[in-house]
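Can anyone check this?
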Amino acid sequence: MSSFQDFGLRPEILKAISALGFETPTDIQAETIPFLLDSKKDLIAMAQTGTGKTAGFGLPILNQIDPQTQGVQSLILSPTRELCMQISSDLKAYAKGIPGFRVLPVYGGTSIQPQISDLRRGVNVVVGTPGRTLDLINRRILKVNAIKWLVLDEADEMLSM
């Protein structure tokens, strides 16, 4: 693929990524985006830091998410608070033009109450660290029964923890 338009992404996403300076897909994006848009199969992908992996999994999720549907539709696990916040920020930027889209980072080291309040108000995507995510599931606040997309970002790092 020579451009993001070739993938058939929503116009709102194309406008947002163009404003961010995205011109042509990186190798990992050219491989993952069409696969994730056209298949319901699992995908394992590896690439160096800085190659655009977040857009590689995030753009197809955003393209298929329905902001009007109640409940969390995607859960993205990351090993650190910093990565969790970065993924959330990137997704917000990619989804800037999608009305009603909400993403919530959940991580420890901060009060859980605001995260609980935001979950109760409704979000489409949760990006979380494993510990805080499990805590919210165990409290029956984060409901995972309607999740369509699960991403384990830097799974090797989480396994080595």
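Reply from J.R.: I decoded it. The two ends are 37 Å apart (CA to CA).
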